[in-house]
Write a structure and sequence with these properties.
The complex is a heterodimer.
Chain A: H1 8-11, E1 18-23, E2 28-33, E3 39-44, E4 49-53, E5 59-64, E6 73-78, E7 84-89, E8 93-98, H2 119-123, E9 129-134, E10 139-144, E11 151-156, E12 162-165, E13 173-176, H3 182-197, H4 202-213, E14 218-223, E15 230-235, E16 239-244, E17 250-255, E18 261-266, E19 272-277, E20 281-286, E21 302-307, E22 316-321, E23 327-332, E24 340-344, E25 349-354, E26 361-367, E27 372-377, E28 383-387, H5 422-432
Antiparallel strand pairs in A: 1-28, 2-3, 3-4, 4-5, 6-7, 7-8, 8-9, 10-11, 11-12, 12-13, 14-15, 15-16, 16-17, 18-19, 19-20, 20-21, 22-23, 23-24, 24-25, 26-27, 27-28
Chain B: H1 7-11, E1 25-32, E2 37-42, E3 48-53, E4 57-62, E5 68-73, E6 79-85, E7 88-96, E8 100-105, E9 110-116, E10 122-127, E11 133-138, E12 142-147, E13 152-158, E14 164-169, E15 175-180, E16 184-189, E17 195-200, E18 221-226, E19 232-237, E20 241-246, E21 251-256, E22 272-275, E23 282-286, E24 292-296, E25 302-306, E26 313-319, E27 324-329, E28 333-339
Classes of the chains: A mainly beta, B mainly beta.
């Protein structure tokens, strides 16, 4: 509600401009804002997680350091409601946190049973980690299903990507996904059929197959944000594979580049896709309508823009869209560059370079509703926050003053110095007060147009202990 | 006990007798304490209520039985205000003339944190809806914003030129409204600490603009309360009136008066609340000598009065939009009232975790 009283021109700004804050608890390697944008989770290099409250300028709400990871965090993923957090780490584990169980749980403890948690679960000394899965190696990234917080997809180091359903904690289902592109898979299938007939060629085919799978790894995997019906994976050979979540079969593949795909970022409205690859190019792609156009054959992936730094040939570390995919921000690799680049996505022009950090920035994320950008510094592990600063209106302090751009000649109003007798005044006042006042109906959107009616989980506070970090 | 507004008293005012709802509330408990009770609050889960007093004691009661559960001692001077954590009904914060803010655990009956920064009496405190930020207003003319997890101050707002009397927050906790004896209400952005707006009611607001600043008289504002949708502010000032403001428009929309146009309060800070659980929204306030008063929000008429004595009623609080109402007074009387089910309207806010303790939902 504060926005409606701020300078409307400042509120209308669509991307942040100034470095306003630096959070410095622990060495942060990865960050993620929750969907409402009021909390920021920060994964530390020691495997613990810090949750900041964005409202209190970076007050720490929680430090998840029990049952946590023991090696650097590689990814963080919030559930839409803001209650669950999925974390992956180099320590081979993926963990699902129920944030209602941290800091003593508070009032939410009573509700626990209603949420259908198993008795044995509660017996586990109320650990906030409600699911924990160990893989055979470090995890590149894990991404939570946008609707069901018990499902996720993960890309693993030197292994096939997986889709995991951990609804039942005693029967966690892990399904391996294909790294091979659709055409290769089909080729292989036909070869397999041929093999049955011509056994003598078997050896040759095996060699071929080995060659094909050689060092072809899926590096990133993520869901499409709206319904989670498709998994987008990016491979080390520049393939973008789209896998249907219901069948877990590859339904579409496109070769975008010859080098590693480092990031696959889909805008929250599901319209645009950004692919960051090690050929120093960010490819921005318009996504087809995945909901209404069911046949993958008809999908077209058109590259709108390629973003690259022609002069310095910079690598991009990480990319992020704003809420409506009108803007794209990227962090740059290398010790010489400390800036974030912001592009306007319709014409692809660079509109802002965010400066202020004095180190290389790695992870970058956009807080949609608060219109700020967070990024982690590689050396210090600090989190830098760029935001929009509102100018102080000094006339706000004195109700009878108005700020004007330039001098104006004051024109006296006709009735300005009239003396009105008290009865008339009183009557006028009474009349004015006859209106019906609605004190109940709330605004549905804030001044930036974000829906504010959606409830979001409030993380319990530990009132008794002081967090010393 | 329950004193309906008498016909006699009404005839002189513009109120109409038929508007009086003498059975609006029924008294569930009446508790007498041998001390001046300065503030009363109902816990967010509706299980307990807490009262603080000038004898340095915080008393916690069971809402259903009215039995005392705990007495919290630690403050060395009178306590002006208490507030429950919105996310944890076991935690309350209190502020006192001894310059400290204390956080208490009711179940452990101990003080768990002391916040110290103010240099003069702390008059009022509020939690933000997420329960991690506490805002305090003091007679040292500042407002301090505290981060509870670290125990540090986030900001100190040099807000007023007289003691801060009351604070209120919008439902999204983004704006703080403060009122002061300097006659101003200021709206602050919680996050940036910037002053967004100042409201004042003076002789120039209605009438001519010829009055020089010397003629302008700002009555001290003793209490502010934000409407449930955060669009309007209810201000009580020591000219004995309560006003409903549209702060976007800087306009007074309604003015509420005591029975027979008598002042509501000219000396004391009496708390107000919006009751929206009834079919027509109401406003409840304590008063200096008229007991507890309830107005129809739209018609501005007094519809209910509860008067135990001539002593001031300092604070009122509601649960479930007014289904339960509590009040405390200078002479130590606590009233716990339940809304008569026949006046129930629709609920607007369905985020309550428990039903009203007295009458379960299915019996209505």
């Amino acid at each position: 509600m504060n926005l409606s009283l701020q300078d409307p021109f400042a509120v209308a700004k669509e991307y942040p401009e100034t470095l306003v804050n630096t959070f410095q608890y622990g060495h942060s390697v990865i960050i993620q804002f929750n969907h409402k944008g009021d909390y920021l989770a920060s994964g530390l290099s020691d495997g613990s997680i810090i949750i900041y409250d964005m409202i209190s300028n970076g007050g720490v709400v929680a430090h998840l350091n029990e049952d946590c990871h023991i090696r650097p965090i590689t990814s963080l993923s919030w559930s839409k409601c803001g209650r669950y957090l999925l974390t992956s780490s180099q320590d081979w584990y993926v963990k699902l946190w129920d944030l209602s169980r941290i800091n003593g749980g508070n009032d939410y403890k009573d509700e626990e049973k209603e949420f259908g948690e198993n008795e044995s679960d509660i017996g586990k000394e109320f650990s906030p980690v409600i699911r924990s899965i160990k893989f055979d190696g470090p995890i590149w990234m894990a991404s939570m299903h946008p609707i069901d917080h018990f499902k996720f997809t993960a890309s693993l180091f030197d292994d096939s990507p997986v889709f995991v359903d951990m609804t039942d904690h005693q029967n966690i289902q892990i399904t391996k996904l294909q790294t091979m592109s659709l055409s290769e898979q089909q080729e292989l299938e036909t070869e397999d059929k041929n093999e049955e007939n011509e056994e003598e060629e078997e050896e040759e085919a095996n060699v071929k197959r080995r060659k094909r799978t050689d060092k072809h790894m899926t590096l990133v995997s993520t869901f499409n944000p709206n319904d989670g019906n498709y998994i987008f994976t990016g491979t080390s050979k520049g393939w973008l594979n789209i896998i249907q979540t219901s069948s877990l079969k590859t339904v579409h593949s496109i070769k975008l580049t010859n080098s590693n795909i480092k990031n696959v970022v889909i805008s929250s409205n599901g319209r645009k896709l950004a692919i960051n690859s090690s050929d120093r190019i960010i490819r921005q792609i318009s996504l087809p309508d995945l909901i209404n156009e069911q046949d993958p054959e008809n999908w077209e992936f058109e590259i709108d823009h390629k973003y690259q730094d022609m002069i310095n040939k910079l690598q991009w570390n990480s990319v992020a869209f704003n809420h409506n995919a009108d803007f794209l921000v990227a962090s740059t690799y290398g010790h010489s560059s400390h800036d974030l680049y912001v592009w306007e996505t319709s014409i692809g022009s660079l509109i802002k370079i965010l400066e202020g950090s004095n180190e290389e920035l790695v992870d970058v994320k956009w807080d949609y509703s608060r219109c700020c950008i967070g990024s982690t510094g590689i050396d210090s592990g600090s989190i830098y926050i760029w935001s929009i600063q509102f100018p102080q209106k000094w006339s706000a302090l004195a109700p009878d003053f108005v700020e004007i751009e330039e001098n104006i000649e004051y024109e006296e109003k006709e009735d300005e110095f009239d003396i009105i007798n008290e009865d008339t005044l009183k009557r006028r006042q009474e009349e004015e007060e006859d209106l019906l006042v609605d004190v109940i109906t709330r605004e549905k959107d804030d001044a930036r147009g974000f829906d504010i009616t959606q409830p979001s989980f409030i993380i319990p506070i530990n009132y008794e202990n002081q967090l010393f970090i | 006990m329950v004193v309906p507004v008498s016909n006699n008293g009404i005839s002189h005012s513009h109120n109409e007798t038929k508007e009086v709802l003498s059975d609006l509330y029924t008294v569930k408990h009446k508790i007498r304490v041998d001390s001046t009770l300065t503030s009363i609050k109902i816990s967010p889960n509706g299980k307990t209520f807490t009262c603080c007093s000038s004898d340095n004691i915080i008393r916690v009661y069971d809402l259903v039985s009215g039995q005392k559960i705990a007495s919290l001692k630690g403050h060395t001077k009178g306590i002006s205000d208490i507030v429950y954590s919105p996310i944890n009904s076991d935690i309350i914060a209190s502020c006192s003339d001894d310059l400290t803010i204390r956080l208490w655990s009711i179940s452990k009956k101990t003080c768990i944190k002391i916040l110290k920064k103010h240099t003069y009496h702390i008059t009022t405190i509020k939690f933000t809806s997420k329960g991690n930020i506490l805002i305090s207003g003091s007679a040292d003319e500042t407002i301090t914003i505290w981060d509870i997890t670290s125990g540090k101050t986030l900001k100190t707002l040099a807000a007023h030129s007289d003691p801060v009397s009351s604070l209120s927050l919008t439902p999204d906790s983004s704006i703080i409204v403060s009122s002061s004896y300097d006659g101003l209400m200021r709206l602050f952005d919680l996050e940036s600490g910037q002053c967004l707006k100042t409201l004042t009611y003076n002789s120039t607001s209605h009438g001519t603009a010829t009055a020089s600043t010397n003629d302008v008289l700002n009555f001290p504002i003793s209490n502010v309360e934000m409407s449930p949708n955060g669009k309007y502010i209810l201000s009580s000032s020591l000219d004995g009136l309560i006003r409903l403001w549209d702060y976007m428009d800087n306009k007074v929309l309604k003015t509420y008066r005591g029975i027979d146009n008598r002042p509501i309060s000219e000396k004391f800070n009496c708390g107000t609340r919006f009751i929206t659980r009834t079919s027509n929204p109401l406003i409840v306030s304590g008063s200096e000598s008229l007991g507890l008063l309830i107005w129809d929000l739209q018609s501005k008429k007094v519809v209910y009065q509860l008067q135990d004595s001539q002593e001031p009623v300092f604070e009122v609080d509601i649960y479930e939009e007014g289904k339960i109402l509590v009040s405390c007074s200078k002479d130590g009387i606590i009233n716990v009232l339940e809304l008569n089910p026949k006046f129930l309207g629709i609920t607007h806010d369905v985020i309550y975790r428990d039903d009203t303790p007295f009458t379960p939902h299915d019996t209505i």
